[in-house]
User: Fold these one by one.
Assistant:
Number 1:
Amino acid sequence: MNWLRRHGHWLLTLYIAFVFIQSLFFKFSGSPETVYIFQGKLDPWAASLGLPGLFAPGGLFSARVVGTFELIASVLLIAGAAMTGRRWVQVAGAAMALGVISGAIFFHLFTPLGVAVVNTDGSSDGGELFILACGVWLASAALLWLRREVWLAWMPGRVRRTALPQTTLRRG
């Protein structure tokens, strides 16, 4: 258990970074799967709401923009885990990862994209992307919980006192 307490943040960090970094090739190369998801499913949905081009190349939520944020989050997570005394860097990466992946989960659940993405050839990913996204969300949330002393220190005193057990706040 002590090993997990000391090194569990690395396991969470490496899982998040693995999922994000392995998807970068698809997002930056314009792979058919990515084009289908962003331009074939999400952009027409956004256009039906009066937001054409939102997911198209050059759009606010294009594959490259999302990939860039995933890359930045991965770098922050790994750098923060590796640097002693700079836990806030890892917290920033976990918060960024949580934000990015919350968007991905939202779009899987509430748009025509769906949980199981059906590709242009008719094959389904069986929900693999959605399951990975849920895993990243859980890992990011767990990492933020493990590093709560960092972000709670930024909160006003009253919030900090009610959020942490008294044993954590005692000076000894």
Number 2:
Amino acid sequence: MVEIKNKIGRPTVYTLGLAKEICDRIASTSKGTKKLCKENKHWPCQDTLFTWLKIYPEFSEQYAQAKRCQIEVFIDEILDIADDSSQDEIANNQGHIVCNSEFIARSRLRIDTRKWLASKLVPKIYGVQQKNANETTPSLIEQLVFDLKI
């Protein structure tokens, strides 16, 4: 007969103070919860954090708000990445200045990843807007004619 043992591990203690600390940190960084939990030894592991989201409604609300705020951090990073042209050109082996395609491609990936996250976490603001099938958009000619009549 196989005896099932309880999971061994440190017990986690949920407190409002710890919940606020976690949410405040999430709201102010672009790091994910897995990395943040590893960096902060007094935090629970990511799995426990997700369990808390199910158990504690107030934490779930705070966490959702923190994730919405985190998107603003991503938007700021998008601007910083897009404006950083410091490594767009490099010297090759012959000493000629050439386009640094790898840096540009990595920057594009970083921007696209942040845009995707923003569109999924805050779709009303950063998501792709779907047009209603019944809505018709006036053509450019119709709009120009309308503008001339006014």
